[in-house]
Design brief:
Blueprint lengths: L8 E5 L5 H12 L3 E2 L3 E2 L6 H10 L7 E6 L2 E10 L13 E9 L8 H15 L4 E7 L4 H7 L3 E3 L5 H13 L17 E7 L1
Parallel strand pairs: 6-7
Antiparallel strand pairs: 1-4, 2-3, 4-5, 5-6, 7-9, 8-9
The structure holds coenzyme A.
Coenzyme A binds next to strand 6, helix 3 and helix 4.
Length: 197
């Protein structure tokens, strides 16, 4: 694929036949994050785990979508609604939460992520949500994309600092700051972003 114009992207709800591709995308995404500074989080991502998670809460399949390009799964988004399992965020009644979004590295920057986020907005509205939110780590290029789509960062409270320190040291690890990158205090810091639907 050489350009977004050349690619016809279709977004559709997740089905069982997509599980292997979801595991592939999740693995790729999670391997960019470290547990205890050295173990890539993606080591646990596989098709059986994807199947197990959806079987535990089949409703989650209705709020998950894949992006297809020439029938190939190139992207994935998982939304979580109030009452669905979510270990990283307490989802409120009027809220849709983007739990994970990932696009195949070969297809990034071509508009697929934007289409998946648009789908998530629609699902949130259909389910009567008034806002949609997500968490992103400071320094992630995706922040620009979220801002362009109307997400606004919510200031973190001082109480969250110890939790943030724990999160950064366990899951992100120490990093050397490359020139031009965000300041240390933003790099790897969890940023909660929200937008009205
Ligand atoms: C973030 C991501 C889902 C966006 O999907 P996409 O199809 O590349 O997005 P679009 O083509 O619609 O929009 C392009 C924007 O995405 C962001 N982006 C591009 N490449 C990216 C990358 N490798 N990693 C993160 N964000 C990227 C940029 O904001 C870009 O805008 P820009 O070209 O003005 O800089 C995708 O890049 C990705 O899977 N990244 C790695 C996983 C990740 O960071 N997920 C988000 C966790 S909160």
């Amino acid at each position: 694929m050489s350009s977004a114009e050349a690619a016809v992207v279709t977004i559709e709800a997740v089905q069982e036949k997509h599980f292997a591709d979801l595991a592939r995308l999740q693995k790729e995404f999670l391997n960019s994050k470290m547990m205890c500074c050295c173990v890539p989080l993606g080591v646990f991502a596989n098709e059986a785990e994807v199947r197990k998670a959806f079987h535990k809460c089949p409703e989650m399949m209705k709020v998950a979508a894949v992006a297809l390009v020439d029938d190939q799964v190139m992207g994935f988004i998982q939304v979580v609604l109030h009452g669905m399992p979510c270990e990283i965020h307490t989802v409120e009644k009027d809220e849709a939460y983007v739990y994970m979004i990932a696009v195949d590295p070969d297809a990034r920057g071509m508009g697929i992520g934007s289409k998946l986020l648009e789908w998530a907005d629609d699902i949130g509205r259909q389910r009567g949500c008034e806002k949609i939110s997500l968490d992103v780590l400071g320094g992630n290029k995706a922040i620009g994309l979220y801002e362009r789509r109307g997400y606004v960062a919510k200031p973190a409270s001082c109480l969250s600092l110890p939790a943030m320190f724990f999160f950064v040291s366990c899951f992100v690890g120490l990093r050397i700051r490359p020139s031009g990158s965000p300041p240390y205090w933003n790099y790897g810091k969890d940023i909660f972003m929200v937008k009205k639907l």
